[in-house]
Amino acid sequence: MFYFENRQIVTPGELLAEGDYIAGNNTYKEGFKIYASRLGLVEYEGRTVQVIALNTIYIPSPGDQVIGKIEDISVNGWTVDINSPYKGILRANDAFSKPFKQQRDNLASLLDVGDLILAKVIAFDRTTDPTLTIREPGLGKITQGQIVKVSPAKVPRIIGRKASMINMLKRETECKITVGRNGIILVSGPSPENERLAILAIEKIAQEAHTSGLTDRIAEMIRREKGVKT
Amino acid sequence: MSGKIRLIDENGLRVDGRKPNELRPIKMEVGVLSNADGSAYIEQGKSKILAAVYGPREVHPRHLALPDRALLRCRYHMAPFSVEERKSSAPSRREIELSKVIREALEPAIFLEKFPRTSIDLFIEVLQADGGTRCAGTTVAALALADAGIPMRDLVVACAAGKVDGVLVLDLNDLEDKEGEADLPVAYMPNLGLVSLLQMDGILTFEEFKQALNLAVEGCKQIYKLQKEALKSKCVAIKEEVEEACLQ
Q1: In this complex, is the C-beta atom of B143 within 8 Å of any C-beta atom belonging to chain A?
Q2: Is B211 helix (H, G, I), strand (E, B) or coil?
Q3: Looking at residue A74, what is its pLDDT?
Q4: A to B CB pairs, distance under 8 Å
Q5: What's the mean pLDDT when you consider all of chain B?
Q6: Which residue of A has its CA nearest to B193?
Q7: Helix spans in A91-187 (H)
Q8: Is A28 part of the contact surface with chain B (CB cutoff 8 Å)?
Q9: Are B111 and B151 in contact (CB under 8 A)?
Q10: What is the distance between the alpha carbons of residues A10 and A16, in angstroms, rounded to a whole number?
Q11: Do B149 and A55 touch (CB under 8 A)?
Q12: In chain A, what residues touch B239 (CB-CB under 8 Å)?
């Protein structure tokens, strides 16, 4: 038995469903009752009950692409702020092409405090901090573009169903947009004007993530903005 | 204690004109501070309280971190200007105690085990005090936690009941608290039906205690409705705005 309609707003603790259902994201089950554990929109899909949260906390998971900022340099690696309760660990061996030697290699010359990197989480098990890697094509130090920060909860919305939203954004603004799972987004385009437009659109998506027909509305907004300028 | 001030008049109304089982007017707002991860503000009668949540984040100092769950740290603090006579801003015995009881009232509602080795820092700042601040503080703290996106079993809502001039009353103000016979603050998780804070100051018979507890729980349920509304109002407003724009 369902207690709400699809896409209604629910608060933590509200009873969502009773019976033989599966508790999805942001819900929890006690006996045969499923309750919400976060503020968000409820979604009933088949036997699964889930809540699309309005705000979440980024918990690293292996395989996630994230954007982070070098926070500190230690003896054999860097610590990276990845907008999460846990800080990322990037080991020196991962960043140098030949085996890392303390006497020879200078960590700061490669990545200094304050540098931004695009990385991938390779391991995380809650008892130790997440390990990152930059040893894959496309990963590494970020040298150009602008950064936008949104709640990690909005990331799926910015990508959209089958990447529809992000592809539209890229097409309309001619920007390269790299979305980190931790809610940090890199926008780099041919001109600052294009970047401004993309950032504006991303902020609007984050703001109105829980409304329907968003892709069309954003596309319209970008076209309108472009029209004003040219 | 009694005799000097009449707390219940001949019509059975209280000093501020309320009926015995009536709450003070309550106003709540969520997301009032942009620096904090979550925040909320409450006005309950003349009491005005602000709450801010930071985290889950790294624990400082490091040795306080717990290996299996998050550490909840709570600071209840009264601003020096919150009461008529200036209150020293250093935490008093009472404030340290309230920080502890509010923390313990909220702890069972939060999924602390989802964030091992981190801390959730909660700040409750009383801007103006007129009784019932531990309850209003708990209510507003739960809102701030939900706003921060921290997973919770249920919201926590608190309300006091008590006895003044021999009458059981709901949601005591400062005068009733000081001059009355008993005060019974209760924190309650409305969907789970669990009590997470129960204190009593003064004397009640067992029968009166039972009635007062029921009264307080009923009060909690009323405040809970406002709490839910406050949480939902923000995104409802955006939704309506968008729908309106679509119609034009």
Answers
A1: no
A2: helix
A3: 92
A4: 91
A5: 94
A6: A13
A7: 92-95, 107-110, 155-159, 164-173
A8: yes
A9: yes
A10: 8
A11: yes
A12: 210-211
What residue type is assigned to position B168 of the chain? Answer: L
3-state secondary structure of A194: helix
CA distance A156 to A26: 15
- Centroid of chain to Cα A85: 14
Distance CA A224, CA A213 (A): 17
- The 3 state secondary structure assigned to B144-185 is HHHHCCCCECCCCEEEEEEEECCEEEECCCHHHHHHCCEEEE
Mention every residue, 6+ apart, whose C-beta is less than 8 A from residue B212. B161, B162, B163, B168, B182, B184, B204
Contact between residue B191 and residue B154 where contact means Cβ atoms under 8 Å apart:
yes
| pTM, to two decimals | 0.93
Q: What does the longest C-alpha to C-alpha distance in chain B come to?
A: 65
Pair of tokens at residue B237: 């407003």
Tally of residues, chain A: 230
Which amino acid is present at B177?
A: D
Partner-chain contact B155 A12, CB within 8 Å: yes
Interface check for A127 against chain B (CB to CB < 8 A): the answer is yes
Reported as a single tens digit per residue, the pLDDT across A92-125 is 999 888 888 888 889 999 999 999 999 999 999 8
Identify from A16, A27, A33, A37 which residue to disrupt to test chain B contact, counting B C-beta atoms within 10 A and taking the largest count: A37
Contacts of B20-25 with C-beta under 8 Å, sequence gap 24+, read: B20/B167, B20/B168, B20/B169, B20/B170, B21/B169, B21/B170, B21/B215, B21/B218, B22/B170, B22/B171, B23/B159, B23/B170, B23/B171, B23/B219, B23/B222, B23/B223, B24/B132, B24/B171, B24/B173
- Contact predicate A26/A12, CB 8 Å: no
